[in-house]
Amino acid sequence: MTGLSALGQTLHDEHRQTLEVMNALENKILGNTASRPLDPSDNDDRRQLQDLIAVVDRDTGSHFRFEEEVLFPIFDEAGAGDMTQMLIQEHEAIRTLGSQLRLLAEGALENGFDESTWSDFRNAAMDLTASVMFHIQKEEMGLVGRLSFFIDPETDAELSRRHAEYAA
Ligand SMILES: [Fe+2]
Ligand SMILES: [Fe+2]
User: What is the pTM of this model?
Assistant: First the structure.
């Protein structure tokens, strides 16, 4: 994406990282290997589960909090409160789905999957990937790409500093 502000670029990069993890997850649960559970004794599968947990934690933690506490209020003031209300509702849904999937991933890292937990994991992953992809698409169009119209470069730099504090 071109023409992004510094903050827009940072948020875009976080969204892209999340999408990479969601795409990889979707390939596992929908692709040719969907009937073969991820195997935590395999290094790649183990890393995939760990990456999933890390991205769920980052997104439902610092990323969402920065958006809700710092970014959305700016859009509220500019009259886009309907959009931010919808995005906050999506955050709540993603927090719930994310914590369900996270529990299943943690359990699998400890004990592996059986047929039943793999089926639960796949169902939860389908819901989460769909919700997250839809949400990010909306934010990329509604927020990230429009940031430079809503805030001046000085404010953008200040918010980038605040973002770094959230991410720390
Ligand atoms: Fe969001
Ligand atoms: Fe976001």
Answer: 0.94
Instruction: Tally the domains of the chain.
Output: 1
Is residue 158 situated within a structural domain?
no
- What CATH number is associated with residue 49? 1.20.120.520
**Residue 131 CA: which ligand is closest?**
1
Dump pLDDT digits (tens) for 41-100: 999 999 999 999 999 999 999 999 999 999 999 999 999 999 999 999 999 999 999 999
Ion ligand 2: protein residues whose beta carbon lies under 5 Å: 139
How many angstroms is it from 64 CA to the middle of ligand 1? 5
d(CA 110, ligand 2 centre) in Å: 30
* Helical H segments across the chain, by residue range: 6-30, 43-58, 64-66, 72-77, 81-111, 115-142, 147-150, 153-167
